[in-house]
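Proteins fold reproducibly. Look at a concrete instance:
___
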Amino acid sequence: MSTVVEPQQVAPAPTRGTAAAVEAIGVSAWFGENKVLADVTLEMRAREVTALIGPSGCGKSTFIRILNRMHELVPGAALAGEVRLDGVDIYGTDQLPIHTRRQIGMVFQKPNPFPAMSISDNVLAGLRLSGMHVREPRRIVEESLTRAGLWKEVRNRLGAPGGSLSGGQQQRLCIARSLAVRPKVLLMDEPCSALDPTSTRRIEDTIREIVDDVTIVIVTHNMQQAQRISNRCAFFNVDEGKPGGIVEIGPTERIFHDPSDPRTADYVHGRFG
C-alpha cells in the first residue's frame, strides 16, 4: 500500500474573517449496535454562536465530535448523513480528516494544554503537529493569546510551562491554540463546566470577541450561559430506549421564552434534566 506524502504547508500570517457555516443533514450515529443519535439536521450559521442544550446522554457531545470527524476515531463507531462546511461534505471521499480538523477546531471540557511545554509553544503546537511551517511565530502567538483574552496576563512569561497556569487560563490557552490554526468553526464541549464564575465570564467574553471571525458551536448545561452568549439554540432530548435527537431549534430568545414544544419549556425552566 502506497503512502501519500502531503507537501509541507506554511502557517498563514494572522488574518480574520474566515468564519463559515456548517450544516448537518440527516446525521445518525452508532456505537457498535447501539444507535445513539437519530436523523439530526441542523444549520450552524457563520459568525453566530449555536448552543446545544439538553439533558445528559441525549447525544450532544457525540454530535459535536461528528462535526470535526472525531467520532470515527472511536472503535466500533459509525455514522450516516452529511456534514457540510461551506457546502462541502467533510466526509466526502476526497476529504482528509486532518484538513477538516484544521478548519473545525475543538475545545474540550477539561483543559488539555501540554503541561511541560511553554505557553508560547502550546499556542503553536496545533500548527506544528499538523505539519505546517510556522511563519511569524511571535506574531501568531501574540494575536492568538490576545483573541483568547490571555495576552496581558502571560505576555511577560511566555516561556513558562502551560501547566503553571490556572484552570481558567489553561482553557483560554487551549482556545488560543485552536485559534492559531485559523479555523472556520470552533467547537466547544462544555468549556466552562469545571471553571469558577470569574473564569467562566472571561471565556464568555472571549466567545463574544471572536464570533465575528469564527463560527462557534457550544455544548452547555448552563442555561444562563446559553442565554447570554448564543444566537440560536438546539434542544436535544432522548426518550428511554431510543436514540437522542433534536426536539426544537430556534433563536435563543424564542427557545427560552416562547418554545414550540412543551418538553423544551420544561427543560429550560428546570423541570427536568
Q: What stands out?
A: The chain is about 30% helix and 25% strand. The first strand starts at residue 9 and ends at 10. The longest helix spans residues 167-180. The CA atoms of residues 5 and 131 lie 11 Å apart.
